[in-house]
Amino acid sequence: MTICNACRYCEGYCAVFPAMERRREFTGEDLIYMANLCFDCRGCYYACPYTPPHEYAINIPEVFSEIRIQTYEEYSFPTALAKLIRGSRVLLSLAVVAITGIILAIALSTGGAAALLGTTDSNFYAVIPYMGMVVPASIIVGYSALVLLVGGYRFWKDTGGTLGQMFNWSAFSRATSDAFSLAYLGGGGDGCFYPDENASMARRNFHHLVFWGFLLDFASTTTAAFYDHFLDWHAPYPFISVPVVLGTIGGVMLVVGTFGLLALKWRADRAPSNETMFKLDQVFISLLLATAATGLALLLLRNTATMGVLLVVHLGFVFALFLTMPYGKFAHVVYRYAALIKNQVEIAADVAGPPRAGH
């Protein structure tokens, strides 16, 4: 950062370099903040005259990726679990198998064996009872949300943020706009440098599909819960209904988006990447793809004999996804969002200028 602050050739690529220019010295907290403000567009790497084999060996994307991994470990709890899960595809596979086995045991112990074999209607609760779904899901989602919220607060506090700044409406709204529009995945304006040194909007477009597909699936689940609890309309719902339409569109967007991101990852230049972060990306995107694909298959085949098995497998992926969220790439959503808010707070302070005497 000291070298970059003297050069400033890359100041137009993203929010990191203007944040860098506000500083003359860089603490560990400053680097944590800027690393999580980075969207890994790689524009700085391909523009930099000091990347390897230059003796300075500047590689900001790789170094910032390493710092983000440390962020995931240090701000989540328990730390030992974060280190254990980090990039371990074998452990994740075992977790999916174990959770799926537990769900299968619940189904068999509560009389769902017949539905597993396709001998009943398409009612999910005939396979797994309502409480068998809701209680484990509530515990896992609540635990993951708690870990992420605590981690986000610790990140905010350690990077110098105050409670008042956290609830600064102007900074919050501008950061939300940046987050929803994926503003900094545009690099210097032409997109990210994936899979090579040629800029492209492909990564940004795939991220949009994943982001909005996830939100549509969440809206589908929320609508179905409202139907069930408040309107007494019980599943299964017809194909031309709000929950099914939202779920189908969201599922297709998630499958296409995650598959596209995986393809870009496999083809991408490995020089600017950190190997551990590369594995974390693969693990999270693959798990999200499996969750979306099995959910979409379940939605389309819910009236067939495969419904029971698909339900158990899908729930296994869903629970594994939410259980590992605080310890993998998804955690970056929380820390990056906090970094975007802090960035807007700093921009507002720049505009306001130094306080006048007597104020």
Please explain how this structure is put together.
The structure is a single chain. This protein is an all-alpha fold and 359 residues long. The protein has one domain (2-352). It has 16 helices and no strands. Helix 11 crosses helix 16 (331-352) and helix 13 runs antiparallel to helix 14 (275-300). The protein is elongated. Mean pLDDT is 86; it is low at 355-359.
Rg from C-alpha positions? 23 Å
Write down the overall mean pLDDT.
Answer: 86
Please state the structural category.
Answer: mainly alpha
Strand content: under 5%
Shape assignment = elongated
How many DSSP H or I helices?
A: 16
Q: Mind summarizing the main beta sheet?
A: none
Q: Report, as a whole number of angstroms, the end-to-end distance.
A: 33 Å
How many strand units?
A: 0
Helical fraction equals 55-70%
Keywords:
359 residues, 16 helices, 67% helix, 0% strand
